[in-house]
Structure formats: C-alpha cells, structure tokens
Amino acid sequence: MQVDQQHDGGAEGTEGTAAGEGEGYQRGLGARQIQMIAIGGAIGTGLFLGAGKAISKAGPSLILAYAIAGLVIFFIMRALGELLMYRPVSGSFSEYAREFIGPFAGFVTGWTYWLFWVVTGITEVTAAATYMTYWWDIPQWVSALVFTVVLYGANLISVKLFGELEFWFSMIKVTAIIGMILICAGILTIGFSDAGDTASMTMLWSEGGFFPKGIGSTLMTLQIVMFAFLAVELVGVTAGESKDPKVTLPKAINTVPWRIAVFYVGALIMILSVVPWTHFTPGVSPFVAAFEQMGLGVGAAIVNFVVLTAALSSCNSGMYSTGRMLRDLALNGQGPKAFTRLTKSGTPLLGTTFSATLMLVGVWINYVAPGKAFEYVVSFATISGMWAWIMILVSQIRYRAAVGRGEVPESEFKAPGAPFTSWFALLFIGMVVVMMGIDEGARVSLYCAPLWALLLGVSYLVLKSRNPENAAFKR
Fold it and tell me: Per the database entry, which stretches of residues form a coiled coil (predicted)?
C-alpha cells in the first residue's frame, strides 16, 4: 500500500519509481506528456464555453478577474508541489489530507474529488454535445452518449495511451489559442477582416468602461472564473505514474503563471480588442463568436472543432482521475476492495467503469433539459473541485508545521511566501463561496453540499465501526 512507501531515500532511480511500484501502477507518463497535461489541464470548457457568459456579465473587467484568480491558482499549485516533492503518490491531496489533517479529511477529499470528476465529466460531455449542434441538428443526448462510451473505451487500454491522447488534445488547444492571439494581433496591426476597421485596444474601456456593469458584477463572475481553472491540479494525480516526478512535476507547476498570462489574460485582451464585449452571449463560445464577428466563417468552424476537442480532453482526464481516486480510497480501506484491482496494463478497470456509468447521468440531463444542462452542473462541479484546493492548502499549512516540529522531512520544492500565500488563497476561495451563495443560479451547489457531507459522514461512521484500523493513518 502506498502509505508504506512514504519516504524513499537512496538513488535517484529509487525516488522516481518507489511510489508507483508500491501502488502497482506503470510509470508510463514522460516529461513531454506531463508538461502538456499540465498545460491542457487549465484549458477547457470554462474558458472555451463558460467565458461567453462571464464576458456578458462583466465585460472587459473579466480580464482582471482571471488575472487575480490565476495568481491564487499559482499559490495553490505551489502548495501542491511542495507536498508532491515530499511524497509523490497518485492519491495526491487525498493522501496528504489523510496524513496531515486526519483520516476523515482524506476520506471526504477522496470521495469528493471523485464526485467532482464525475460531475465535470458530465459538464464536459454536455459541452461537447453542445458544440456538435454547430454542424448538425442532432439531439444533444445522442452525442453525449457516443462521447461517453468512446472515451471510456480509450481509458481502458493503458496510461501511456492516455498520456499520448492528452498530449495531442492539449497541443490542439494550445495551437488554437496561440493562433487566435496571432490573428487578432494581425487584425489590430494590419486591419484585415470585417473587424479591421473598428478593432482597437481602446475597446477594452470605450464600450461602457472597463467595469461596464460595476465591480459587483465582476465579483459575481468569480465562480465561472474558478471553474475555468478546475483540473489544473490534475498533474498531482499523475504523480504515481510519472517516470521522474521529482523533475517533471516542479517544471510543470512552474509553467502555471505564463499559461494563465497567455491563454486566459492574453487571449481575452486580444479578443475583446477586436470584438466589442457586447457581442458575446451566454452559451456561445467567445472564440467561435469572435471568428464569426470577424467574418471568418471557416475559422469559426475550426475553432468549434478545437473547443470540442478541449471538452473531450477534459472528460478523458476525468475518467482517468476517477479510477485512480477510487483505487486510492480502496487501498486505504475507505472504499470497496474490488476497486484495488488493476488490469495487466495497470488500469483500474472497475473504478473507471463505475465512474463512467455514473457519467451517463449526463446523457439523461441532456435528454430532459438540453438548454440548462451546462448551467446545472457547473456550480456543483465548482464547489466540489474547490474542496480539493482547500484540502491542498490546509494540508500544506499543516505539513509546514510538522516540518517545524521535526516530524517529517522538508520538501525540496518549497512554496514561496507560504504559509501566508496559502492563507490568502483560502480567504479568496471563501469569498468565492460567498459569491456563489449570493448568486441565485449557483446557490444550488451550496444546497447540495450539506447533503453530500451528511452522506459522507454517515458512511465514515459505518466504516469506522466495522474496521477502526481503516480510520487511522499509519506513517
């Protein structure tokens, strides 16, 4: 069990393999794949689809919201990086919560992160089905069903294939955003396309000001902004299957600032300088809408394909994560033993199958409420995903305290400014939760959260009564 493989000394090769071998996984993810998974993890539906709604609510000030939230995300990732270099395992933040906060915290974190990816999978397959209607007038539920089945099959082959698929999915997303930035730069400097005569950086403040609907409206978009960054922590789940985690993971985490600067802040600055923010509407990708406003119809079709790829990429990552998280829980006696089984290729078959089956709920949502499907699941995905961030930050604060007491070794990749940066990030997340409570559309997630907490609490009490040993972390 991975909890017994905590501190590995010795040669570099030992450090690179111990956790993975102890867990039974194959270390099939190389540096190239880890880098692209890290880059692509923060580029998904939240940017390509959700940003349309956020722009209509906040206007150009959304750029500032992404920049500030991006700084908080960097603090979270550096906190995670410090923990990963202390002990790189696939259970990641669930394991750290179990060790530094308590067994119940690990139990809640593991199951909540699993739920997050199930709900996110529903979100992404819903978005993918929405994109398909750009070309064909087919029911959303049909597309959602096909995508779910295909991605499930792809996840059962091997982690190496998963990494390769994610590499190319991410490459498509990155290329598309850079291409969009370059095209917008060309329109601003050379003036080609239908938008060439009006394109100007002054549109960032000339159409009603930088805060056209007030600072309050900008704050209300924070839920959408934070949802866009969900899955950036996925790189932590890959720790148990990375070939050399102590080299590749710090490099991947340190790319967070420029990823956010280019793909979020940079892309939005360019798009909103070419197309007025008033032309964007909820439910329509701002990238597709921008190309249509420029009069580049073919470009809009290409971008629609790219955002379809982005949604499928995120759903693919979700299926990968859920199987690993269920197996980690099972290995620690906090989930059904059947989930511990691996195929010959190192894939957690039953955990992935169980999760994919629940993702079929997305097919039903698309059948009964295709127009509201995305909105229904975004808010709950946000609150469950942010729980993982909270546990990362609290675990890192508790880890630092344990280091100070001499109980655990110091990490080789210390988070700068911690624990103050971690406390700041926690306060920011708290503010986002308050904003969600004020927003009538997002409030549903806060109603669901206590019910989920009650279910987990009862389940843990049953677990503890049947086997007290599984309710204790052993270092």
Answer: none
| 238 close to 29: Cβ distance less than 8 angstroms | yes
Q: pLDDT tens-digit profile of 284-296? A: 778 777 877 777 7
What is the distance, to the nearest Å, from the Cα of residue 178 to the centroid of all Cα atoms in its chain? 21
Cα 59 to Cα 52: distance, rounded to the nearest angstrom: 10
Q: Point out which residues pair with 242 in neighbouring strands.
A: 29
pLDDT digits (tens, 9 = 90+) for 372-423: 555 556 667 778 888 999 999 999 999 999 999 999 999 989 999 989 999 9
Q: What is the pLDDT of residues 336-353, one digit of tens each?
A: 888 888 877 777 888 888
For residue 213, give Cα distances in angstroms to 51, 139, 153, 154, 224: 16, 36, 46, 45, 16
Q: How far is CA 23 from CA 156, 188, 392, in A?
A: 18, 53, 21
Lookup: tokens for 389: 């961030």
CA distance 454 to 475: 28
Residues with Cβ < 8 Å from 81, sequence gap 6 or more? 249, 250, 253, 413, 415
Q: Which residues pair with 29 in a beta bridge?
A: 242
Among the listed residues 385, 332, 312, 325, the one whose alpha carbon sits nearest the alpha carbon of residue 351: 325
Closest CA to 441 of 387, 366, 375, 362: 375
What are the CA-CA distances from residue 334 to residues 106, 257, 340, 473 (Å)?
Answer: 9, 36, 11, 11
Q: Residue 13 above 70 pLDDT?
A: no
Structural domains in the chain? 28-471 (1.20.1740.10)
Q: Is 63 helix (H, G, I), strand (E, B) or coil?
A: helix
pLDDT at 5 over 60: no
Residues 237 and 94: their CA atoms lie apart, in Å, by: 10
**More confident site: 218 or 91:** 218
- Distance set, CA 32 to CA 232, 263, 306, 310, 317 (Å): 17, 19, 21, 18, 16
Q: How far apart are CA 122 and CA 114, in angstroms?
A: 13
Distance CA 126, CA 366 (A): 7
Task: Quickly count: other Cβ atoms within 10 Å of residue 349's Cβ.
Answer: 17
**Which of 36, 29, 465 lies closest to 245 in space, CA to CA?**
29
Global confidence as pTM: 0.84
Reduced to 3 states (helix: H, G, I; strand: E, B; else coil), residue 24 is coil
Are the C-beta atoms of residues 87 and 95 closer than 8 Å to each other?
yes
Question: What Rg value do the Cα atoms of the chain yield, rounded?
Answer: 22
